[in-house]
Amino acid sequence: MLRQLLLTVVLVLKKYLEDKEEIIMATIKVKQVRSRIHAPRTQKATLDTLGLRKMNQVVEVEDNPSTRGLINTVHHLVKVID
Questions:
Q1: Is the CB of residue 47 less than 8 Å from the CB of residue 76?
Q2: 42-63 pLDDT tens trace
Q3: Would 47 disulfide with which of 23, 52, 75, 76, CB 3.0-4.6 Å?
Q4: Hey, is 78 helix, strand or coil?
Q5: Which domains can be identified in the chain, with CATH numbers?
Q6: Could you tell me the end-to-end alpha-carbon distance of the chain, in angstroms, rounded to an integer?
Q7: Cα–Cα nearest to 62, from 27, 13, 33
Q8: pLDDT single digits (tens) 5-33
Q9: What is each CA distance from 53 to 24, 59, 61, 66, in whole angstroms?
Q10: ∠ at Cα 38 (33, 40), nearest 5°?
């Protein structure tokens, strides 16, 4: 009985992991349009977290509340591209 329960749990976890790999996260493109010079350290760190290192650089990031919060922090330095 215990062995059957463990096998069932393993099969359920395996199925869950397979389904999780198939889920495609929505992404958005973010472009740095203003310079980071004279920006506070926290905003520079936010740009680094987003992967933006140079002017006019475009990065593709996952569209989730955490990333939206980062973008909102530096909204005057970046532009969201459709």
A1: no
A2: 999 999 999 999 999 999 999 9
A3: 52
A4: strand
A5: 24-81 (3.30.1390.20)
A6: 54
A7: 27
A8: 888 888 887 777 766 655 667 899 999 99
A9: 26, 10, 14, 19
A10: 95
